[in-house]
Amino acid sequence: MTLHPGEVWAVGYRLSTSRDMQDFDGLNSVAGDLPVAAMSGGKLCAESGAHQEIAVTRKAGNGMIRAVVYHDSIRHPEVAGTGAADPAELASSGAVVDTATGSFRFLARDTRRTGSALRLPSR
Length: 123
Description:
Radius of gyration: 20 Å
Number of helices: 1
Largest sheet: 5 strands, antiparallel
Number of strands: 10
């Protein structure tokens, strides 16, 4: 959602709950891998989270100045990788292993991050 209180200023709020679809381009993308799920405390868990941001933008000459404050909260983040690790060892740690490609995926601990960014017009 973006509010334009004038021709120079804009204030916006964004919320995303999916890594896969950040904008309309995501509607045409090919489906990714099935999500990883794991048992924790007797309950089935899968990755979930939210990215929220508030942005203030001001036109400056031919460019824009943009200030953003954001907060990310991810429960059970899915981690993926490839490598020469022992598939049996990875599987015993709760990772989903694909021995054909040498890749693995697992759920990590919850994470929260807050930050800000300032983008100035390029010269």
